[in-house]
Specification:
The chain is an alpha+beta fold. 31% of the residues lie in helices and 27% in strands. It contains eight helices and 18 strands. The protein has helices at residues 15-33, 42-53, 124-139, 163-170, 227-245, 283-304, 323-337, 393-408, and strands spanning 2-5, 8-12, 58-61, 68-73, 90-97, 147-154, 178-189, 193-195, 198-199, 203-212, 216-217, 252-261, 267-268, 271-280, 307-316, 320-321, 342-344, 364-372. It has an eight-stranded mixed beta sheet with strand order 3-4-6-5-7-18-8-17, with helices on both faces. A four-stranded antiparallel beta sheet has the order 12-14-10-15, covered by helices on one side. Strand 3 and strand 4 form a beta hairpin. Helix 1 crosses helix 8, helix 5 runs antiparallel to helix 6 and helix 7 (323-337) crosses helix 8. It starts with a strand and ends in a 5-residue tail after the last helix.
Length: 413
């Protein structure tokens, strides 16, 4: 059925998808009003379980205290003349994250956050609503599906070590042949899909550096070993690591995000602390970077008579899009929505714990779904108190999920 959606004409949305849009948007708004922080998604999980348990054909499980997984087994069987060419039935997993952020919402919406200081400012409410709608719609089509699809509602994407790692230990990836993810993005316009083969997101890690000097009266700095001065020097040194010790063609970021030192205007403190994050794409750079940073910190401190303690904590690894699945999904998007719907994008610096699910060795593909609408003023970035989502984008996301499952759970390889 031809529709005008997102300002792009003559795109095809199936009737069954269009019939789910109103309920899907309603679910998203209900979820938006009850945001919950990572590992605390109790009300959200209850909402998800209530909807899933009302859908015939799903086997619903709760592998962790929060989050859920629904399993749909297709009942289609190849006819006698198709058996010879039918591949072994696939098991595919679709993942949506469900947690929110510690942000006070600035928007004035009828369905604004009811939880003080917590907001869905990254689109996870939309991810959840699209996945619920896909589960409902595909369950009604199970007689046409050959294989198994798992709908994973994952908790705690926003807080390392992340919910994906916990779910991996719970065995949700056992037997999965292909892994798929999607993220609504305020960087790309509604009606487009950001696609990239290989490394899509950066590896995101955390560092802490404690500089231990010798405090004293601000009138007599010569009697002290000033950790604040050393901190200033170290910040400059850390910023030159990428420009002078990492290959120019290798993306990397070192960001100092917190500095803690002193309590009085006239006292030089004994200690200072720097906390920040690094972003890398290659495994080699990720391995080298902490050693370089620690060497810089110890060198500056030693030169000034101070000491330091260095701690580096690995966060999320890069999301890697499988070459073959990227090509398949790119082709599927083009067939579904037109060539103009595909954007070949650069690597993304934000991290994503979906990468933990890829540790199973299962090939995967993760796509960025545009939800930006400048004409409507929907331009605020993610993790922002003014973040909004173009809800029309969810129709594209739902159609993509349906087309993907139908494509991958057909009789042909």
């Amino acid at each position: 059925m031809s529709q005008t959606v997102g300002g792009i004409n003559q795109l095809r949305f199936s009737n069954d998808v269009l019939q789910e849009v109103s309920e899907m948007v309603s679910w998203r708004r209900q979820l938006h009003s009850i945001p919950e922080l990572s590992f605390q998604e109790n009300e959200t999980t209850s909402f998800i379980l209530d909807k899933l348990n009302s859908i015939p054909g799903l086997t619903v499980k709760r592998p962790c205290p929060t989050g859920a997984i629904a399993v749909l087994r297709g009942t289609a069987k190849p006819s006698n003349d198709k058996k010879a060419e039918a591949a072994e039935p696939r098991c595919i997993l679709l993942r949506a994250d469900i947690d929110a952020l510690p942000i006070t919402e600035s928007n004035h919406l009828p369905f604004c956050s009811r939880h003080a200081g917590v907001m869905h400012a990254c689109g996870h409410d939309g991810h959840t609503a699209m996945m619920l709608a896909a589960a409902k719609l595909l369950a009604a089509q199970r007689s046409r599906l050959y294989g198994e699809v798992r709908f994973l509602f994952q908790h705690a994407e926003e807080l390392p070590p992340g919910g994906a790692a916990e779910l991996m230990k719970a065995g949700v990836m056992n037997g999965v042949d292909e892994l798929y993810g999607m993220h609504l993005s305020s960087s790309f316009p509604t009606g487009t899909f950001g696609v990239r083969e290989g490394a899509l997101t950066s590896a995101t890690d955390r560092f802490e550096i404690r500089i231990i000097g010798k405090g004293g009266h601000s009138a007599f700095p010569e009697t002290t070993i000033d950790p604040i001065v050393i901190t200033g020097q170290l910040i400059g040194a850390l910023q030159t690591i990428v420009s002078r010790q990492i290959r120019a063609v290798e993306p990397a970021v070192v960001s100092v995000c917190q500095i803690q030192a002193g309590r009085a205007y006239n006292i030089i403190p004994d200690e200072a602390q720097l906390i920040g994050s690094t972003r890398t794409f290659s495994a080699e750079t990720r391995k080298r970077l902490p050693a370089i940073m620690e060497r810089e910190a110890h060198g500056l401190c030693e030169a000034s008579g101070a000491t330091c303690q260095f701690q580096f904590t690995h966060g999320y690894a890069s999301v890697i899009n499988d070459r073959a699945l990227t090509a398949e999904c790119k082709n599927l998007i083009q067939r579904s929505f037109g060539d103009q719907a595909v954007l070949d994008i650069e690597p993304l610096m934000p991290g994503e714990d979906y990468s933990a699910l890829q540790e199973s060795g299962c090939p995967g593909f993760f796509v960025e779904l545009g939800a930006r609408n400048e004409a409507m003023g929907i331009t605020a970035p993610h993790h922002n108190a003014n973040y909004l989502m173009d809800e029309e984008a969810m129709t594209y996301g739902l159609q993509y999920w349906v087309n993907l499952v139908q494509n991958r759970l057909s009789f042909h390889s």
